[in-house]
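Write out this protein's structure.
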Amino acid sequence: MSAEYATFDLAPAMRAGGVLANGDYQVHRDFVDFLVDGRPLLFRLSDLDAVSPLASDVPPAIFTAQVRGLLLEADAPLEGGRHVIYGCPECEDLACGAVTAVIERDGEDYVWRDFAWQTEERVDLELNGYHGIGPFRFRGDEYRRALGTLLDGGSAERRRVLLIGPRVAVLARLAAALRGMGIGADIAHEVTDVSADELRTYGAVAFGQAVGERERAAVRGSFERAGAEAAYVDGLAPIVPLLVAQIEHALERDPVERRRLTHLAAAEGAAEIEVTSMCRVRVTTYRRDRLHRVHTHEAFDGVLEPGRHRIALGAGTAKGESYVVARTSGSVLVAAVAR
């Protein structure tokens, strides 16, 4: 087989959740993505909202079976030796569509070929094949070593968020929204009596606006003594979808060079956005008027080419407090509209 060698590795990734403009929840999913020549394979699929089968919230037995399938230690789940590479983040139904590929051995090497979009047991490569992707040839020792780390306990735990502040309505609504997306969330006044093991289960800490600097420093000190690496979020405004977006950003683990969305700034009725690969981007504005009512506006929803782009936000952002949320399937950025 003539495929050239490519490097193979794995990296933690996420499908960003959120509270959509119509009030629906988009589920948060943590998963392990495939790096081909150092770049997430998912980035080659410009407008795909999907996760790999190696998701942190699947039962351990199923997770192990998925890894062994990729190692060809188990039969392929689909006809023709095809394996699911990316699937629907909301369910496991093939009818929703999945990216599949043939995985096979060639001597000591592993080859991924014939990538296609598949919605039923058989696939039509002429009609639904990804003709510009692959085939990829991976060296066997490198391939087995990367996937073997997952069998040794390298998969990520589902992450939780700790919300610090008085038990006010906004924190309760925020916790409910996070749980609805699949992110664990707890509310506390302080953490002096919380065990170190428990603190280490939190990936982020979000402070309510009523929490003073002394209380925040005490919380950070407790996490540091526990050896817990948590991201800290200072809420921009008591707007639940905005706070959710800030927390989603805090939970991102990919280094900046492996993110699709890398820059967001807003001023004078426009947002400046930078993306590293072609992808679908949704831009939403949130504005609080003088009566503290929240106004939501979908400013943009479309596919952007790599580079910097200027997106018009509308005249309404010039009034009151305004904020912008930009999101792709795997990244979220939040910015206040500068005056």
